[in-house]
Amino acid sequence: MGPHPAVAAIRLAVRRVLHDLLTEHHRAPAAVPHALAHEPSPPPLVLVACSGGADSMALASALAFESPKLGIRAGGVTVDHGLQAGSDLRAAEVVQRLRELGLDPVDSVAVTVGRAGGPEAAARDARYAALDTAAERHGAAAVLLGHTRDDQAETVLLGLARGSGIRSLSGMAAVSGAGGRYRRPFLELDRQTARKACMVQSLPVWDDPHNADPAYTRSRLRHEGLPALEKALGKGVVEALARTAQLSRDDADALDSWAAQAETTVRDAAGQLECAKLYALPPAVRRRVLRRAAIAAGAPAGSLFARHIEEVDRLITGWRGQGAINLPGKVVAQRQGGRLVIRQG
Ligand SMILES: Nc1ncnc2c1ncn2[C@@H]1O[C@H](COP(=O)(O)OP(=O)(O)OP(=O)(O)O)[C@@H](O)[C@H]1O
Question: What is known of its domains (predicted)?
Fold first, then answer.
């Protein structure tokens, strides 16, 4: 008898990603010192980022099962955010569970969570910094994350509520980070399947109380927003939102490359942006050109919002002699004799 369907599903999802990694590894093996150049390159190491929750425990179990069959080394990292009493004990417990699955090396990394951008963003920044460091320390080829289709649907809704265009609707990528380090094998799998896979394999899981705390936006969305949407629109809404993410990502990539090309055609010989040529571009491309120009002038991408770009756009499409527009990073945009000048002032 084969494994339970939920276990088969998580293993298949992980196997696909491991196959991709092996193909990439054989195509571009890591640089080796000259003396070792003739020896076979060591098998790649893949780490699972594990909170101890159902999604990442399911991921760890599937990695532990699939990696030896493909000659891949598998390890794990858990990050202790230090946000709850006893979080160090919980991290130690996760380490033990990962070792019991046969993963090696397994690390627990304690981080200090700052305040920048709010509690969720600060914890995320600290977590990714710790995962980056762990991956580099061990020379890992990839770090697997347990984001599911449900997480993706939540991310799309959060982007939609920000009102900043299709890039923010495109959610999380299956491959991201420096050199494609982060992989999300469960992005097309629902949370229930991951949880079920843990249950049937008798894997103990830890339910993060933050996930149920209504003080957090994502938690409210998970427990109130999405269930209300499902009630109104039907069960397929999560899948539809996840599909929206993929379609939006492709559209956003296409528009970005269009804008990169257009930018070279709207500058004069001195490199200044010509307002008439900007005016002739489709709005979606023009706004991207303006955003690129503002970032090139020194505006930090993370602080540059849709409303900033709309104001700059009005210098082109709604010109009535407005003054200079102040942008984040002390960048100023102003119209001067048919040219749009964007510079740090
Ligand atoms: N403390 C942590 N240590 C290591 N990895 C983490 C930690 N917290 C989250 N991750 C990684 O990020 C992924 C997404 O985490 P998040 O908390 O957003 O989702 P989740 O649905 O609660 O996941 P999980 O059920 O695995 O905790 C996790 O599946 C895991 O891979």
Answer: The N-terminal region contains the highly conserved SGGXDS motif, predicted to be a P-loop motif involved in ATP binding.
* CA distance linking residue 340 with residue 334, whole number of Å: 6
**Does residue 32 carry a pLDDT above 70?**
no
- CA dist 293 and 297 (Å) reads 6
Single residue among 183, 206, 241 that ends a domain in this structure: 241
pLDDT, mean of residues 145-151: 97
Whether 53 has a binding-site annotation, put simply, is yes
| pTM given for the model | 0.89
Give yes or no: residues 129 and 201 share one domain. Answer: yes
2 is in an annotated binding site: no
Number of domains in the chain: 2
Specify the DSSP element, H or E, that contains 273.
Answer: strand 273-274
Residue 5 has which token pair? Answer: 């369907």
Q: Are residues 124 and 40 in the same domain?
A: yes
- 79 alpha carbon – ligand 1 mean position (Å): 9
- Check: complex ipTM more than 0.90: yes
79 has a pLDDT exceeding 90: yes
| 39-62 pLDDT tens trace | 667 899 999 999 999 999 999 999
Are residue 227 and residue 328 in the same domain, yes or no?
Answer: no
145 Cα–ligand 1 center, Å: 7
- Answer yes or no: is the C-beta of 185 below 6 A from any ligand 1 atom: no
Q: Is the CB of 63 under 6 A from ligand 1?
A: no
User: Which residue, judged by its Cα, is nearest atom 10 of ligand 1?
Assistant: 51
pLDDT in tens, 162-176: 887 899 999 999 999
Residue 286 Cβ inside 6 Å of ligand 1? The answer reads: no
- Closest ligand 1 atom to residue 80 Cα is 1
| CATH number of the domain to which 147 belongs | 3.40.50.620
Which protein residue has the closest C-alpha to ligand 1 atom 14? 147
Query: 109: CA distance to ligand 1 center in Å?
Result: 14
Examine the domain organization and report whether 228 and 287 are in the same domain. Answer: no
CB contact at 8 A, 266 and 277: yes
Is residue 258, in this structure, part of any structural domain at all? no
Residue 35 lies in a domain: yes
Same domain, residue pair 222 and 339: no
Domain that includes residue 209, residue range? 5-241
